[in-house]
Amino acid sequence: MDLLPTIWFIAIAVLWTGYLFLEGFDLGVGMLMKGFARNNTERRVLLNTIGPVWDGNEVWLLTAGGATFAAFPLWYASLFSALYLPLLLVLVALIFRAVAFEYRGKVDTPQWRARWDWAISAGSLVAAFGVGAALALTTTGLPLNANGDRVGGPFAWFSAYAVLGGLAVVGFSLLHGLAFLALKTDGDIRRRARERFVRLLPVLLLPLAGWAVSLQLLSGEAWTVAAVVAAVVAAVLAWNFARKGAEGRAFLALGAFLLLGSASIFGAAFPVVLPSTLDPDFSLTVSNASSSDYTLGLMSIVACIGLPLVLAYQAWTYWVFRRRVSHEHIPEAHSFLPAIAAKALAPKD
Amino acid sequence: MDALEIARWQFGITTVYHFMMVPLTIGLGLVVAVIQTLWYRTGKPEYLRMTKFWGKLFLINFIMGVATGIVQEFQFGMAWSEYSRFVGDVFGAPLAMEALLAFFVESTFLGLWIFGWKQLKPGVHLACLWIAVIGSVFSAYFIIVANSWMQHPVGVEMINGRPVMTDAWAVFTNNTALVAVPHTIFGALAVAGSFLLGIAWYHLWRRRHDGVDTVGADGRVIPGESAVPGRDRADHAVWIRSVRIGAVVAMISFAGTAVTGDLQGKLMFEQQPMKMAAAEAACHDGTGFSVLSVGNLGSKNCDDIVAVIEVPGILSFLAKGDFSTEVKGVNSLLDRYKADYGTNLPDNPIYGERAGQEIQYVPVMEVTYWGFRMMIGFGGLAAFAALVALWATRKGTVPASRGIMRLAVFGILAPFGANAAGWIFTEMGRQPFVVAPNPDPSGIDQVFMFTAAAVSPGVSAGELLTSLIVLTAVYAVLLVVEVKLLVKYIRGGVVSAMPELVHAPADQNEDGTPGDGGPGKPEAGDVLAFAY
Questions:
Q1: How confident is the model at residue A288 (pLDDT cuts 50, 70, 90)?
Q2: What 3-state DSSP class applies to B271?
Q3: Which whole-number Å values give the CA distances from B415 to B389, B421, B428, B484, in the listed order?
Q4: For position B290, what pLDDT does the model report?
Q5: B497 touching A, CB under 8 A?
Q6: Closest alpha carbon to B507 in B497, B520, B494
Q7: CA-to-CA distance for A17 and A160, rounded, in angstroms?
Q8: Contact present, B422 and B409 (Cβ < 8 Å)
Q9: How confident is the model at residue A108, as a pLDDT?
Q10: CA nearest A288 in B: which residue?
């Protein structure tokens, strides 16, 4: 029994789930900048619901990646190199999205804002799709040779599962974003977000449910099948809560859906971390892809200290910024007044 | 170009670019934290303005470091999968810790600082900035621990052909890292120092140019007021303090880089003698430091190189601390490297087309020789400029000369150049190894890796070329955007970061003393003190 590698498999599953839970809603809010928000003030309301937290949420991705490198170097190396081009796309999307948050309000013209709005919504969409595709493929497999390298060219990773996983994370993020907006805004946006949540829930969760069910068909166990059933129940609950206007509970129930769905997927995949579709002997597992027990032990100590701290201060951030944001809180955009330009206009003293 | 060369160019370009943003983030973060502390202690309006103005520039730059940092972490797995497989057991841990213990702290507390001007009590708000900045220093520590292990592997044993960590303490207290971390932090502060100096100089000059400030008969400044909001006497205080803080920071940090760089050099003469011999383009054993060498530095036959000006004894001093010890040159080192690590790359498919080729142990000497000198030269130039600036501003303003102002602004680039040159030197100087062997007798046998073996075998040259082009293009566009925004906010002065100075609510003090313009008691009605 590989105790430490198993613990680290769970830890990485937790990190990915944490990433999808937290960045899920800010990716969703990002996508909703187009097609949901109706004007600049609404877009600013959306942005400011995630403003103080999105960067901290994104670090979950870096931590999941770094932890995979540290705990399962062979998994990290094979997955990241096999998915070279899709991950490049994710990187470019995340770069533009991050810069857009910060730079969007820095020049006061509609064209400038419109460009960065596209960067935010398209960046969020592409990043969500790419991460979803990568996670789906690590559970369903890639054409890897004995050394763990992809064979078959730059697009050999492509499969229906890549699309399913991509849609799964996009759909979940959109729904989660709506749930978050219903929870964090007030007035018209809050109402529309809730209504759209209720209307779209079945469609948006379908791909994630489909991914979870396929995994059960491939390698499910009794408890992981039970988790899928429980996830469906959580989704129904979320729908019902939202319909009754209990936004907080709807948000939590959707979180439970993600947790259970993710548990069913990672649980069914275990102990394989990255199957080879060419030969099962080439598959990477928790035992043949992991670091030494010494390294895993060290990382365990660090995680036991670090992770609770992260959870504590991130929770505190959400507490500090717990109030709902709405139209009236958005300060008017000050037209930029450079002192020196104004000097020319001002009367001489 | 084959996959290996493209992957190396990509790593070089993305890393040097990322490391334009990082030193400014670390250095300016520390400076802004100190300034906000001064404001917290004294309540002087100029310190609040400085916090807001430099804080705004800090954030415009910070986000670029964040955005380009993700590429760095992904790149190891994407382009360097064989490297990742080989070193993962020891190299992954500091990377994971960097994310878990530093990036989370940095991003979360910076979010609190940006948005929390009114939600948090002033002391707590200030603490958030300090915590975020300390987080960025920790991130530097962790990534340098990882890099230092590539320079000088310690704390591992070879098991089944891969280094396995056996002594975390040795890895995390690697002497290479312990000198590289302060060297890097001082390098970052040097960037921040020149940044403050150049920009504040521009504004002082502008105030004189516009007739706001005048100079009395004794040469002392007479700060003036203008009708334009934000161009008052406090504004003069903002820039004169900034210029002087910048100059002092630049000088202290140059001294710091010199001392730590000297320690680092002495270590490197032992740990990677070839890198240091190549830094000198020194073929033969000797004691002299070359001030100028000419000839074909690129030729592998280093007898083509002629040292034109050489100072005897200095090389020995750099390496050993005395003036007479002979320092080994490239020629004698070459025999040792060949004996220890082979003359040809093994006939292993991992080396691709390069299998069996002769190993070039001498790094590209144009790069190491000039990289080393540019690092020191640019660093020294910035420090000298800071000394001059400190003297020139002793009477409270800057000379009216437009040319000198331009020099001061242009000088902002010098420490950036020094940082880039230093990293290019140390990384290129490590070649042909990606993990350099530890030559210490107590070092670990066989723990080294040739760069030729590190690239991802499954990734095609076409994929790498695609990403090289895409990332370079994206980075170029974003650099233009970032610089344009920085210039816009810099030219705008303090009001660009404090619109409340212009659009002041009736109940606010005009000078920006702690009233509504700054943190006060958390107010129930304030949901957003800052909004995107």
A1: very high
A2: helix
A3: 16, 10, 20, 20
A4: 75
A5: no
A6: B520
A7: 22
A8: no
A9: 86
A10: B85
Q: Is B228 on the interface with A (CB under 8 A)?
A: yes
- On whether any CB of chain A is under 8 Å from the CB of B404, the answer is no
User: Rounded to a whole number, what is the distance in Å from the CA of A313 to chain B's nearest CA?
Assistant: 8
Q: What is the pLDDT of residue B298?
A: 57
Predicted pLDDT of residue A323: 87
Taking only the tens place, the pLDDT of each residue in A17-45 is 999 999 999 999 999 999 999 999 999 99
| SS3 label, residue B308 | strand
Report the DSSP beta bridge partners of residue A285. Answer: A272
Nearest CA in chain A to B472: A92
Q: How many CB atoms lie within 10 A of CB B324?
A: 10
The answer to whether B460 contacts A153, with C-beta atoms less than 8 Å apart, is: yes
Q: How far apart are CA B179 and CA B365, in angstroms?
A: 24
Ranges of residues in chain B with a pLDDT under 50 are 505-525
Contacts of B5 (CB under 8 A, 6+ apart): none
Could you tell me which residues are beta bridge partners of residue B43?
A: none
Using the beta-carbon criterion (under 8 Å), do A295 and B489 form an inter-chain contact? Answer: no
What size, in residues, is chain B?
532
Answer for the pair B108, A56: CB distance below 8 angstroms, yes or no: yes
**Contact between residue B303 and residue B258 where contact means Cβ atoms under 8 Å apart:** no
| Tens-place pLDDT, residues B267-284 | 999 899 999 888 887 777
Q: What Rg, from alpha-carbon coordinates, does chain A have?
A: 22
CA–centroid distance for B400 within its chain: 32
Interface test with B, best of A61, A81, A314, A336 (most B CBs within 10 A): A81
Q: What is the pLDDT of residues B431-476, one digit of tens each?
A: 999 999 998 776 677 899 999 999 999 999 999 999 999 999 999 9
Q: Which residue of A has its CA nearest to B350?
A: A147
Assess contact for A250 and A182: CB atoms under 8 A. yes
Opening angle at CA A150, ends A147 and A155, nearest 5: 180
Cross-chain residue pair B493–A338, CB shorter than 8 Å: yes
pTM over 0.90: yes
- B229 contacts chain A (CB < 8 A): yes
Q: Using CB atoms, pick whichever of A69, A88, A317 lies closest to residue B108.
A: A317
Task: Give the Cβ contact number of residue A334 at 10 Å.
Answer: 13
Q: Which of B83, B163, B148, B4 is nearest to A74 (CA)?
A: B83
Q: Do B98 and A66 touch (CB under 8 A)?
A: yes
- Provide the phi-psi class of B192: left if phi over 0, else alpha when psi is between -120 and 50, else beta: alpha
